[in-house]
Amino acid sequence: MRLSCIIVMKIAIFFCLSVFIFKPLKAQRSTMSDEELISVDYEIFGRVQGVFFRKYTQAEGKKLGLVGWVQNTSAGTVQGQLQGPRGKVKEMQEWLRSTGSPKSRISKAEFKNEKTIDSLEHSSFNIVK
């Protein structure tokens, strides 16, 4: 009798775990994978060099789960590429447009060559020197 009670309790616990933990994770994964991937190039103007803009951009991109790259230009701007789910890329675009690093002063943000992609072309978010 005790053995059957233990088995029933284990089955009940497994059922609860599968309903309340595993299914929401599965739903979350499928929602993320259903969102189309995009790639967009950007260039940021203003006081964006010498203020850790690339470091903060890389950190924000990683936080959002994006891949791509960022680099300084000889014209004094910062440019790069973002890739990831459309919603996260749009969040990053807004961050580049209005936030940046604490000491930066953004005067303009340009986004070009936005396109849908089948898979990510980068494996991480890199600072190019």
Secondary structure layout:
Elements: H1 2-34, E1 37-47, H2 53-63, E2 67-72, E3 78-85, H3 86-98, E4 105-117, E5 125-128
Keywords:
alpha+beta; Alpha-Beta Plaits; 5 strands; Acylphosphatase_CS; acylphosphatase activity; Acylphosphatase
Describe the structure.
By secondary structure, the protein is α+β, with helices and mostly antiparallel strands. The radius of gyration is 22 Å and the shape is elongated. It starts with a helix and ends with a strand. The protein has a single domain, classed as 2-Layer Sandwich (Alpha-Beta Plaits), CATH 3.30.70.100. Helix content is 44%, strand content 33%. Strands 4-1-3-2-5 form a five-stranded mixed β-sheet, with helices on one face. The longest helix has 33 residues. About 9% of the residues have low confidence.
Short description:
By secondary structure, the protein is an alpha+beta fold.
